[in-house]
Amino acid sequence: MISTFVKFSTKGITPKYVENSTIMVLNQKCVRDNKIDYSYAQFTDDSKKIAESKFIRKGDILVNSTGAGTAGRSAFVADVPNDIRVIVDSHILILRCNSFYEAQCVSYVLFSFEETLMSFMTGSSGQSELDKVVLLDLKTNMSSNPETQRKIATVLSILDKKIELNNRINIELEAMAKTLYDYWFVQFDFPDKNGKPYKINGGKMVWNEELKRQIPDGWQIKELSQITDISNESINPFEWPMKDFKHYSIPVFDKTGTYAIEKGSEIKSNKFTIKETDILVSKLNPRFSRVIYSTDDENLICSTEFVVWRTKNIEFKNYLYMIARDASFVTYCTQSASGTSNSHKRVNPTVMMKYRIVFNEEIAERFGKALGSTIKMYAKNQLENNNLSELRDWLLPLLMNGQVKVN
Questions:
Q1: Where would a tag sit more exposed on the chain, N or C end, judged by fewer CB atoms within 10 A?
Q2: What is the CATH number of the domain that holds 23?
Q3: Contact between 72 and 115 (Cβ < 8 Å)
């Protein structure tokens, strides 16, 4: 049982929030994906004494104890900030084990049971709370041998570090791509025929009455529908029950950033077929900007909640991917969406494709060619992270049960 390894547990405090202080407070939003997201942290009044046991330490495990959709989420404290002390609020449970590696192993066990932990709730729906007794009674075959714990934790954390590295690389890649897009298509300083920035080096600009701004001479205002097609080509996977389909769905994309491999027998409705030059743009809740750069794999399909932009070549695909990710396009689709609730608003594909851009086909293709390797690496990293996550989740029970041993 988990209680075998947990030597101490405590809840956080009820903080008195202030603008700034020497004590940072973590809330439920900070606990996600077995890590701590400090971007949601706040500060509490530091004038009153707080018990030393309430401050988080390296090797602690944090578990959200209340809240629909958040209770059961856990995070491992791999390190603590050097410049500030950190506590958690009263909706988070702190677990402490006998050693760092033991705690890391326990945190992986809890992370793998996250959905199960969400069911360990007691009380009314508005005030439900995670049952700590049931949590600590959770059964596990985890070894009590410190060296075995160290080896297991090391293997699993190596996979997590690679995932984290890929995420950091992708943040940088996306920032670079966005900067280049803004440089070429917002500032209009794309390379001219001499390789110099067009506008800043005296490229001819003309007034466009529709946009009430200057645009490069020879450029046009076009709707998306005039530069790329929509594909409604569909398939019923259920007709091939034993076939493996690579299925892009909204829930899986939100969780992994890529597709899930599913048998045709598991997919109960028609899906759109996907080609290498396609871009998938979600019509559901467009404010979340779900945009997928499809891979070149076989048997790719997607939910009909996506609009499939079927581009004419890879260069155009790269260019259009950046349009779909652009803040002005996201705003346009969000404002155009309709529905009965904020959680289920959709933008009509016809309306989506009326989005207007300043367009030059030659420059668009040149941009797409320049951006090719950046976007490919971004998509590759997303897929690799999904594979690494699946490998980690597959290895975890085998390592804990001793079916796989680490030398």
A1: C
A2: 3.90.220.20
A3: yes
